[in-house]
């Protein structure tokens, strides 16, 4: 672990979203990655989008960990991730066009499940049938792939190695394509054609495929530093989020262990990424949501549009109830607060400190989604800092307006953990790292 006397940087850090995703994890992983040898992604699919700005250039990552932007950093896609090979190759090619070579630095678990074309078809049909009750998924096949995994009919990357006519892969393809064709009328999919497509997929993918759990355990044994990167956010966790309006995987801390094949003792600290207001994409409760011009103003100031889909995000005030819950569920040690500069033009800022449900004041999100939908936020109002300066681009805490520092302090009090990092802009340089905070253990 970190030795204060020698200032050595060892140990392994997990970074997780502590809201409904889109908290700015990509920038924070990018900031910290140079201090680690390995960055490992544990769950989700290419529905997750991490946006990183480096000297004004934008990089959008969906499957590949943000650490790939740094030469020498090895990136791992774990068994808990569902991988669309077409999306992965497109991402690799786009990075190459931007001057980022992934060769020899990107490894994919042989136990990760594969997203195939029929998964996308099935998800689109499922969302359409739900009508007004639709979850608001990206329809990229992530959910159906996880369904196949849980139903023990999924196809793993290891299965692609044997593409013989009588092999295990062909048996699975026949069954799954037949099920798809019985549900979706019209164009009928051919399992034989799909097998032919997978020939080219395996040829390109094979050099990246390995037992990533064994790879990480070897690194742990050699005390090689690992940064564990989560996708989405805690309130989208399939067990602990706002079910059923959630993702299809465990985006809380347990998903790091199961999604990478490492034990909990491998994680020395947990950093929760939190936007200083709330956003959500898709359907489901967002207790502090701002509608009309107030919501539009926050959305435009924060450029709140999905990195993966371009969809406008729903915006609202900071929800301390949800964040404190995420801190507890994940054992978060410290927070990274992002997008503080977006609040520069707010005359007053509200923080939700409880959910009012009739005569009951809740201090934690209820499991009953109907009850949560009926709850009204209890607000605490703080002064904004309009006219007292700007947070944009600040790199020292002393450069922040006094009201902004007071806001940060209140968020720390309500969440129960300190802020180690404060992001004041989109570029990696627009960041305040507290010298006494958790993140300073790893930053060079």
Describe the protein:
30% of the residues lie in helices and 19% in strands. The chain has 444 residues and is α/β, with parallel strands linked by helices. It folds into two domains: 13-107 and 211-441, 3-Layer(aba) Sandwich (Adenylosuccinate Synthetase, Chain A, domain 1), CATH 3.40.440.10; 113-207, Orthogonal Bundle (Adenylosuccinate Synthetase, subunit A, domain 2), CATH 1.10.300.10. The protein has a ten-stranded mixed beta sheet, with helices on both faces. Strand 19 (419-423) and strand 20 form a beta hairpin. It has helices spanning 25-32, 85-97, 117-130, 142-150, 168-183, 191-205, 212-221, 253-260, 292-302, 320-330, 369-374, 402-415; strands at 13-17, 38-41, 50-54, 57-61, 74-77, 82-83, 106-109, 113-114, 209-210, 226-229, 269-275, 278-280, 314-316, 318-319, 334-338, 348-357, 360-362, 376-383, 419-423, 431-433. The chain is globular, with a radius of gyration of 22 Å.
């Amino acid at each position: 672990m970190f030795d204060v006397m020698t200032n050595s940087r060892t140990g392994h850090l997990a970074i997780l979203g502590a809201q409904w995703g889109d908290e700015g994890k990509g920038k924070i992983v990018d900031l910290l990655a140079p201090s680690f040898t390995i960055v490992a992604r544990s769950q989700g699919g290419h529905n997750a989008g991490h946006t990183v700005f480096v000297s004004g250039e934008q990089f959008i990552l969906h499957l590949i960990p943000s650490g790939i932007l740094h030469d020498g950093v090895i990136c791992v896609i774990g068994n808990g991730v569902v991988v669309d090979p077409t999306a992965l190759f497109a991402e690799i090619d786009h990075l190459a066009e931007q001057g980022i070579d992934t060769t020899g630095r990107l490894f994919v678990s042989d136990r990760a499940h594969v997203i195939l074309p029929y998964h996308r078809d099935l998800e689109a049909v499922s969302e359409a049938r739900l009508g007004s009750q639709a979850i608001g998924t990206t329809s990229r096949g992530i959910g159906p792939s996880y369904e196949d995994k849980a139903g023990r009919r999924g196809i793993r990357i290891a299965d692609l190695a044997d593409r013989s006519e009588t092999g295990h892969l062909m048996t699975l393809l026949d069954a799954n394509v037949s099920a798809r064709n019985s549900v979706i009328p019209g164009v009928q999919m051919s399992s034989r054609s799909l097998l032919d497509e997978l020939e080219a997929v395996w040829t390109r993918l094979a050099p990246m495929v390995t037992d990533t759990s064994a790879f990480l355990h070897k690194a742990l044994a050699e005390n090689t530093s690992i940064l564990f990167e989560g996708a989405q956010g805690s309130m989208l966790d399939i067990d602990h989020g706002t079910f059923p309006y959630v993702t299809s995987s465990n985006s809380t801390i347990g998903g790091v262990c199961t999604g990478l094949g490492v034990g909990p003792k491998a994680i020395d600290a947990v950093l929760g990424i939190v936007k200083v207001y709330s956003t959500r994409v898709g359907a489901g409760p967002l207790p502090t949501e701002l509608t009309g011009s107030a919501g539009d103003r926050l959305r435009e100031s924060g450029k709140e549009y999905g990195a993966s889909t371009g969809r406008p995000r729903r915006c609202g005030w900071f929800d301390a109830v949800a964040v404190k819950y995420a801190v507890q569920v994940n054992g978060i040690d410290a927070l990274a607060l992002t997008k503080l500069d977006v609040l520069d033009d707010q005359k007053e800022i509200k923080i939700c400190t409880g959910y009012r449900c009739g005569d009951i004041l809740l201090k934690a999100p209820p499991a009953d989604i109907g009850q949560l939908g009926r709850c009204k936020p209890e607000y605490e109002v703080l002064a904004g800092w309009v006219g007292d300066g700007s947070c944009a681009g600040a790199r020292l805490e002393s450069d922040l307006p006094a009201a902004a520092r007071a806001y940060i302090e209140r968020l720390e009090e309500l969440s129960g953990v300190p802020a180690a990092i404060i992001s004041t802009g989109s570029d990696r340089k627009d960041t305040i790292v507290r010298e006494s905070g958790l993140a300073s253990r790893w930053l060079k």
